[in-house]
Amino acid sequence: MMPKKLLLSLACLFTLAAFVGAAADTTWLLKVPEKSRAKQNPFSGNSDAAAAGARLFQQNCAQCHGSDGTGRDKKPNLHSGRIRSATPGELEWLLTNGSMKNGMPSWSRLPEGQRWQIVTYVKSLP
Q1: 3-class DSSP state for residue 5?
Q2: Residue 106 reports pLDDT greater than 50
Q3: Which of 32, 49, 68, 123 is most solvent-facing, going by the fewest CB within 10 Å?
Q4: Is-contact 93 38, C-beta < 8 A?
Q5: Largest separation between any pair of C-alpha atoms in the chain
Q6: pTM, full prediction
Q7: Using one digit for the tens of pLDDT, what is the confidence trace for 11-53?
């Protein structure tokens, strides 16, 4: 059995590592203009848009984020608290502009409506 001090030290290290990793993942948020941050999702609550977004997600996003959005190969878990608390406008901005520093490409080639459908799907994840 491990001594209490060692267990406490390991717990602190893991917590710090998780905090540092989470902070690095959200640096893109600092670049989102207030106007974009405040945008409302025109498809919010629309189940047809969420279903269309799910199909688009599988075609364009699942390779990195996993088919269920739980992340893959150090790519973010879209069920995380930070993604859950992101505004729809922040997520649409990220899809449009990407964050190459974090390995997220721009999806500006997708029509705006399709980007909003993906946001609708991501926001519907449990």
Answers
A1: helix
A2: yes
A3: 68
A4: no
A5: 57
A6: 0.77
A7: 433 333 333 333 345 677 888 999 999 999 999 999 999 999 9
Please give the backbone phi and psi of residue 71, each rounded to the nearest 5 degrees, phi first: 90, 160
Number of Cβ within a 10 Å radius of residue 50: 21
Report the domain count for the chain.
Answer: 1
Q: DSSP state, 70?
A: S
Is residue 12 included in any domain, yes or no?
no
Amino acid identity of 17? A
Q: Which residues, 6+ apart, have CB-to-CB distance to 18 below 8 Å? A: none
Integer-rounded Cα radius of gyration of the chain: 17
Which CATH number is 48's domain given?
1.10.760.10
Whose structure tokens read 């060692």? Answer: 6
Say if 18 falls within a structural domain. no
The sign one gets for the Cα dihedral 57, 63, 68, 74 is negative
Please give the pLDDT value at position 103: 86
